[in-house]
Each structure stands twice: as structure tokens, then as C-alpha cells.
Amino acid sequence: MSEAAGITPVSRLPPRSRVPVPPFVGTTLVPIVLALVAGGLVLAAIGTDPLAYYAYVLERGLLRLRGLQATLVHMIPLLILGAALIVSFRSGLWNLGIDGQYMLGMLTAGALAPHLVQAMPLAPALGLSALAGGVAGTLWALPPAWLRARHGTNEVISGLMMSLIATSLVAALVKLWLRDPASLEPQTLTLAVGDRLPMIPGTDVNVGLVLALLVVLGVHAMMTRTAAGLRFRVLGLNPAAARHAGFGGPVLAMSVLCLSGFLGGLAGSVELIGALGKMQASWNPAYGFAVVPLVFLSRFNGLALILLAFAFSVLEIGGASAATRLDVPQDFTLVLVGFVLIFLALAEYLAQRRAET
Amino acid sequence: MQSLLSQTFLAALLTGTVVSAIPLILAALGEQFSERAGVLNIGVEGMMLSGAYAGFATTLAGGGIWGGLLAALACGAGLGALMALFCVRMGMNQIIVGIALTLGAAGVTALLHHAHFARTYPRLDAAPRIAIPGLSGIPVLGQALFHHHPVTWLGLLAPALFALIYRNSFLGLNLAAAGERPDALDATGIGVVATRSAAVIVGGAMAGLGGGYMAVIASGIFVPHMTGGAGYIAIVLAMLARSRPLSVLGGGLLFGMCLAVTTALQVGGIAIPTDVIQMLPFVAVMAVLVLFGRHARMPSALGQPYRRGQR
């Protein structure tokens, strides 16, 4: 451009031939719709009417008051886990050990909360339990974080290993030491309903939802508005630039993964003191892999994450009813999530190609 | 404890070691192959699962053991081709595509299993085993090593074959070049995309074969999510063995022994929850990573899509 004043003559402006499409339509909505269509084909292939399935899911997950409340409660852990992944993915690090951190966080809260509520007033007892869960998540994130920071070992694999260990470790701990002697199922002591997080007035949704929304908004603000967030983002966009600027060292990588681990643990402890009240030895929802695509779809944007987590919850809650009613296993959600990821990556590829030409 | 150390027990443990190690070795060799060319394949777990299902269904439908293994190989190669299309040709993010393939394969095989086998849970006849005359008579080791289905021996010999390819063939050199300096390979006139695609497809085929071995020969049954993390162990194996296929053999046998001990202790009725035992192989992996993590080196262009003229 030779125009010194920086003003482009009108004759050089690109022609306004196409109506501009908001970016989120191309790279968020289109992959979702395509995934639903492809999933519908899979349903048809196994002999289920896809339209009936989706209609049933919507009716059960969204249109009935009970279903809607269940959907909102189901969102709570997804939101906090999403915030954890935003911190890590935006910094270019892959905290895929998120499921393990969630499990350990929940177990810690499950072990502490029933005793703490006996010893002190409710508010500090629940607050301490939630925080302890976060700390447990941080500790569980430490080995992969250290390996990554010290030796550059790929954190994806070590994280997945820690998750696999956590599943068995939690079950073993519940069976061996934390078991409620009064129950037949191996599970921790149950937190009485009155000792859990209070409900939002007029609903059956606990205040964990408010907390989760605050966590997402807080993380969003931190990543976009603070110096620490800027460092994280520079690390994610260009590690070499971060090193040149003097902050790309092991400490930053460790803090990213530990913060992410803290939120992962917090998701577990909040779900325990809010919705579940106890941890069963067999509990392993594997939310992590469900949240990963949501976080990518949201382009690491906290506000978009809230909408997407809501939509996904509808799918899960409705899908759970459909599993018993229409005989479609819940594994179908995995298929949908896989399709979403593929179409998302495709959409990004196409958008990039268009930008280059 | 007496019975734990008897000869028959040891023989059974070693046989179990070999049988559990083969899927890991096959999948890890495939992973090593594609990593060498610069593509990190996180989808191994999904490829193994799809291979397991394809192999099981084919053998059950009357395709025989070799037919089942062939189907498993083809299925893995198919997913590998998909991954090559997305990650190598189009340069999409390798981790996202890998996760997507794993999730998709886990979901689809679970749905198929639910539709076809969930009510009957059919079982395959045990794979016929051949005893090598003479060698199989050696106490303990003979039964463990020389009384197997022939595929098992092929699996044990495969690392040597891969070592030969890496050391003595142009293909091996091309692979290494595609992983370390793709621009140099491109400059010699050999397509980086073609080399890498071939590597990913071979990697997928090996993972599929490993899964097929699990279903058709090792267990004779398919259950959803049956690989249970074996694909990730294979990735770790490839990572730690770096570019040496023979280390994959050693490491694979070591982890195979972990898995076999897990089963043996469960069968032996030791009074610890099975959960404690189930996590041992993964604890072992983490311990190895912490102790030897600094040796885990990757090709310098690993994970980077190649575009001509771009640094």
C-alpha cells in the first residue's frame, strides 16, 4: 500500500458482492448442524428414526420443566471444566488429564464435607470442601505439568495416563477406606440434603450454577483483560515470542497446567457438594472428552462456552431418557462429539484456505 | 503364595505376557512408523477398537481367523487413511483429529455391538495354537514362547522387520527425512505428503491389527471400550522407544507382563480390590515417564503439517 495517509481509495475496496456471514455461523453452527445430520445417518443405519430421536431429546431435555432443571444442573461441572480447558488450550497446552482431576476433586470433597459440616458452620465447611477439591486437582495435574516443564514430555499422554490411574485409584480408595459402612453400594458418606449447596430460590437448581457461571466469566476476564492472561495467550500463540519476551519458561507452563488442574478439581468438588452429595466407587462420567469439543467450538470464548454447554446438556439429559425409551445407547453422544470435532476442524481448514486465496 | 510360583503358574503368566504384549507391540510399531514421518497419531486407541470390532465380526461371520485379522488391518488402515487425508493432506490439527477418531470409533463400535451382539454376547472358538516340536518341550519357556497361534510369532518378529526397513531401505530414510527435515525431502523430489500419508496408513493398519489380535486371538470376544487404554500405552511405548523398534519389543513385553500380572492376581483371588491392580500398568507408565522422560525424544517436525515454501 503506497497511500501514506492510510486511506484506501474507494475504487480499491473489495467488491461487496457477498453478504458478510458472521464468523461464528461458518465455524460453529455449521459443524454442529453437520454433526447432527451425520449422527442422524448413523441412527438411521442402526434402525432408529433420527427425527423422532432428536425430537424426543429436545422434549425431554429442554421443553419439560423437570428436564430443563436437570439440564441446568448438568451444566455446572461442564462449565467449570470448560473454564479449566480454556485456560490450558488458549495457552497452547493440552490438559487432557482433566477427568482425573475432576475425579480426585470430587473424592476429596466427598471425604471431607460430611465431617466438616459437623465441625463448623455450613458456609465455611462447604467452601473449604470445594477448595480442597481444587487443591487435589492441582496435585493431580502436577506430574504431567512437571514432565512438560522439565523435559518437554508431551502432556497429552501423561495427562491421559493420570486420568486412567485416577479412575481406579478413586474406586480403590472408596472401597478400602472411605466407604460408608451403612450402604450396600461402595460409596462415600452421604452429605445430607440440607447440608448441600442451597437451591436458587424457586427452582431445583443449586447455586453451583451461579458459581460455575462466575468461574467461566472470571476466566474469560482473566484471559482477555489481565497481564497474566496476556502471557498465557502469548505462550499459546507463539511460544518462541514468549521466550523472547522473557516469560516463556517452565514456571509459566506449570502455572497454566496447575490452574487448569485446580479448576478441574473444583468442578468435581462443586458437583459433589451441590448435586450428588456422595461419590460412588463406579462414578466416572468422563466429561473431559465431551467438554473438549465444546471448548474448541467456542473458540476459547467463555460466553460462547455457556451457550454450547447448555445445548450439550440438553443433548445429554434428553439422550439419557432416550437411551431407555428408544433403545439407543448413550455411546451415541460420543459419535456426535467425534463428528462435531471433525467438521469443526474441516470448517477451520476451509476458512483458512479462503483467507489465503 | 506357594501356588503363585508353581511351574504351571509361571508358564501361564509368561504366555499371558506374550499374548497381552502383541497388541501393544503391533500398535506401538505403527505409531513409531507414523511418528518417524512426523505425524503424531493420537487416534491409535480408536483404530485398535475399530480393528477389534471388524476382526471379531468378520471371524464370527465365518471369515476365519486370518480373514478377521485382515479385516482388522483394513479397518485400521481405513481410519489411518482418513487421518492422513485430514492431517497430512489438509494440515488439520493432529490432536483434535486423533481425539475425534478415537471418540467416533468408540461410539460407533459400541452402537454396533449394542445392535448386533448385546443380547447374545457371542464368543469365538479359541484360536488354534501350534506347538513347535522340540522347542515347546522346554519347561516353562517352551509353552510360553513356542505354543501359539502363528500370528503371535509374526508379532514377535515384526520389530526386527521394522528395524530392517528403517536401517536398510530408502523408505526408512524417506520416513526419517519427512519427520526431521521435510523441506529436504521435498527438495529431492519425493513428496512429503505421499510419504507421510503412507506412514499414517501403515500406522493405522498396525493399530487395527493389534486390536484385531486382541479380539480374535487373545480374548475371542468383543466388548465396547475393550482396549481400555492400550492405545495410549502404545503411544507411550513409541515415545520412549524413540526410533528403535527393538526397544518396542522389550517395552511391549514389560507392559504385557504388567497386564498379565493384573489378570493373574485377579484370578488368583488376592484380597485387594481389582481397581488397585488395574491401575498398575498405568502407574508403571507414569513411573517410566518420570524416570526416563528426558530420553523421550521426538522427530523435530513432529505434529507440524508440511506446506511447501513455509518455514
TrEMBL record, chain B:
Assigned keywords, A-Z: Cell membrane, Membrane, Transmembrane, Transmembrane helix
Membrane-protein topology: Multi-pass membrane protein
InterPro entries on file: ABC_transp_permease
GO molecular function: transmembrane transporter activity
Main localization (coarse): membrane
Pfam family, one: BPD_transp_2
A GO CC term assigned to this protein in UniProt: plasma membrane
Residue spans crossing the bilayer: 65-88, 95-115, 150-166, 187-207, 213-241, 248-270, 276-293
Subcellular location: Cell membrane
Domain of life: Bacteria
Protein name (Swiss-Prot/TrEMBL): ABC transporter permease
Organism this protein belongs to: Paracoccus lichenicola
